[in-house]
Write a structure and sequence with these properties.
Order of helices and strands: HHHEEEHHEHE
Strand content: 15-25%
Helix content: 25-40%
Distance between the termini: 48 Å
Structural class: alpha+beta
Number of helices: 6
Shape: globular
Oligomer: single chain
Length: 152
Amino acid sequence: MRLLNEINREHCADEYGSYQFTDKDLIVKLHDFEEFYGIVKKHFPDELMKRRVDGGWVQVNNTVVPFVLRNQYMRYVPLSVIRYAAQLLKDVQIEGHVPTDAECKFFNEICASAGLKFTFGRTTKLVMLTTVQQVRCKKIDCFKHICSPPPR
């Protein structure tokens, strides 16, 4: 378990949660999980499996950036907004994560309601805010959570 905790904490930036793995956690073969997932998908329609996307706005330096929450506390922001609007991570090679369709819809709706003309799709890449903080290509002067839509 110590190895799993070290990998998660030091190499994955707590991507699998901030809790500690214990001997009650299981590692399963992908094939076994896929079989289980197939059964779940068969008995529960996609509409029941879709969850509401949570998110909001965060201010990084002088740029207000939309974010989505994954795993109830990990904030993901569009990499393109961080690079081109906030002028961060421009010279850093980052793969990024693919957003879900629901996350793309959330980003498009929240930006439209704020009067921003961004369009996000499945080619958009997301990056964790902790990655932005860790890399710090440029000093981040302000980093705060904004609960309501940003001012126009």
